[in-house]
Design goal:
By secondary structure, the protein is mainly alpha-helical. It contains 17 helices and no strands. The longest helix is centred in the last third of the chain and has 12 residues.
Length: 356
């Protein structure tokens, strides 16, 4: 006669297993097959951790009370429920109230149930993706969905993507939602202004007309300098628009007109915000001492920055003297100047330096 090991005795001991699952429901996985089919043990386990239902017997995964307890604790546990119970109104409602995504596992019939879908999208807006086509065109459901998650606008009908209230709710939460709005609403001043105020880069999805609207564009570049990429040619050459953009993000200088990439004030503002922006400045301003010093001041790796500036500037002794005490600059020209300055007076060295 075979005798049970100590581990097997433990796995089959009702009191020990009950105490374990009360503390951590997932320990049901260590219970014996017999206790995984025990109503009290499994109920205690799934009440503590809904996912523990995975280790319950097939019989108990079809038990209404067990499954209801599991999905109430973790809506995703419905995945392990029987097909029959995934079509049970009360169980599915409890599941989506806890986790809207649980609607993915519901029956097609319940994915078309107004109350269940409304509960699901209120908890998790993107659950609209799994609703029936009919409910994806329901105003109340879609409004609840986009209010919770702007991305839900992607899953609604073309009709509601053209609904002012729904689209405004979506873009107010995240301007990027403008991408999924109808062509008509992407040309609506209020909608687009709300979008770019929340996310300047949403200007990409605005109509050509509104990409040329001063107020819209200024709001966009104020929120995100990079939005300058999506402006009209005319506003990409507007001084105050570009200045606002580069003040927000220096690298937006790359989208400015050639004329403004050669504007001292614009470029200084850009490199003050981000030294790397100097690579987008005109050759003339890449050789301007004040601009280069500001760029070096606002870039962590000074030596890397030296690779981006015009080599001609190293012939400028005013520049050399200004960066004399900059930490960690090991450029060869600076080293040479420092060595020569030990033995050659600066007045003479400055004259010779232009010839080196």
């Amino acid at each position: 006669m075979e005798t049970k090991t100590e581990a097997e005795v433990t796995q089959d001991d009702y009191t020990i297993v009950l105490a374990a699952v009360l503390q951590d429901g997932y320990t049901l996985r260590h219970a014996s097959e017999e206790l995984q089919n025990n109503y009290a043990i499994v109920l205690a386990a799934v009440t503590q951790d809904g996912h523990a239902i995975f280790y319950a017997s097939k019989e108990l995964r079809n038990n209404y009370t067990i499954v209801l307890a599991a999905v109430t604790q973790d809506g995703h546990a419905i995945f392990y429920a029987s097909k029959e119970l995934r079509n049970n109104y009360t169980i599915v409602l409890a599941a989506v109230l806890q986790d809207g995504y649980a609607i993915f596992y519901a029956s097609k019939e319940l994915q078309n149930n107004y109350t269940i879908v409304l509960a699901a999208v209120t908890q998790y807006g993107d659950a609209l993706c799994y609703a029936s086509e009919e409910l994806q065109n329901n105003y109340d459901i879609v409004l609840a969905a986009v209010t919770q998650s702007w991305k839900a606008l992607k899953y609604t009908s073309e009709e509601l993507q053209n609904n002012y209230t729904i689209v405004l709710a979506a873009v107010t939460q995240d301007g990027y939602a403008l991408k999924y709005a109808s062509e008509e609403l992407r040309n609506n001043y209020t909608i687009v202004l709300a979008s770019v105020t929340q996310d300047g880069d949403a200007l990409e999805y605005a109509s050509k007309e509104l990409q040329n609207n001063y107020t819209i564009v200024l709001a966009a570049v104020t929120q995100s300098g990079y939005a300058l990429e999506y402006t009209s040619i005319e506003l990409g050459n507007a001084y105050d628009v570009v200045l606002t953009a580069v003040t927000n993000n220096g690298r937006a200088l790359c989208y400015a007109s050639k004329k403004l990439q050669n504007d001292y004030t614009i470029v200084l503002a850009a490199v003050t915000q981000d030294g790397y922006a100097i690579i987008y400045a005109s050759k003339e301003l890449q050789n301007n001492v004040d601009i280069v010093i500001a760029a070096l001041d606002n870039f962590d790796d000074k030596n890397e920055m030296c690779a981006y500036i015009d080599p001609k500037i190293w012939k400028n002794t005013e520049f050399i003297k200004k960066i004399w005490n900059f930490p960690n600059i090991t450029h060869s020209k600076l080293k040479i100047y420092k060595v020569l300055s030990i033995t050659i007076p600066h007045t003479i060295l400055d004259l010779l330096w232009m010839l080196i």
